Amino acid sequence: MTTKLSAKKTKKPKKPSATKKSRKPTTSKKTAKKAGPPQAPKLPRLPKGGLKDIGLMSFGKKAVRRKRSKPVAGGVGIGLAGSVADRQRAADTRLSPFRKICDLVITAADNGLHSGTAFFISPRMLLTCGHCLFIFDPGTAAHGPVRKVLVMPARNGETNAAQSLAGWVEVTTENTRVHDRWRLEGNLEFDYGVLILPPDQPLGAQVGFFNVSPFPDQQLNGARPTLSGYPDNVPEGTQWFETNPIRQVTPARLFYDIFTFGGQSGSPVFFANNTQQTACAIHNFGNVPFNSGVRITPAVIAQLNAWRV
What we know:
The chain is mainly β. The chain contains 5 helices and 19 strands. It has one domain: Trypsin-like serine proteases (Thrombin, subunit H), CATH 2.40.10.
């Protein structure tokens, strides 16, 4: 922007006397440093033995309700259904839909580090579990909103942002949203939330994003969706997926025969065709005989629209 000189007439300045030297404008030796681009977030030093699944913080061992069959390898309340033999690695996460799914490193209120998954539903918004963003464990130091979340789209073993497809973003508490009934009650049927990226980092515009849709019961019963995310029992930062049937449909939840493991909380459960992928649920709980997720319903979509940026 340019500023026009005032049209007001001013008196001519007096000539300096021969004995006095006119002052020269001076500049401060200290000059402000030019603000450069924000530094890329770094992967924190991971604890010995790897990250702990974020779900254990809210559900713990109480998550398992033993039934007739024994839990398969997958830990407590994290991945107790399906068969690990059906699981496949996403070898090239630059391809769709894998590039729309993100590995998360979550720093809790007590500074513990945990694992999770999220997926893009708009250029700046990612959908995940509520318990990835707000640990519900009243009376403990971890209870409450997490401090920050490192979001790594399309991660395929990279250890720094420079190696990644689209860069990494760190999201802090004020840019997360969770449903009130998860935050206040720990209600599993409302265990979902979103991460909101800064306006200057709309990574979803680069990698793409999922549609979300409230499918009717008759389309869901027996259908074969895919679940893809970042489990803890595989090489660090690698994405794995599986396609298997939905076994039970309730008004607020879907139960499916898909193997999962710790770290996959927040993974999309979706249907795909040649042109698009549409999520029908957000994976958030492991049990026997089936794992389950929050069903995408008109009420869920209304809440997402209220959070949308």
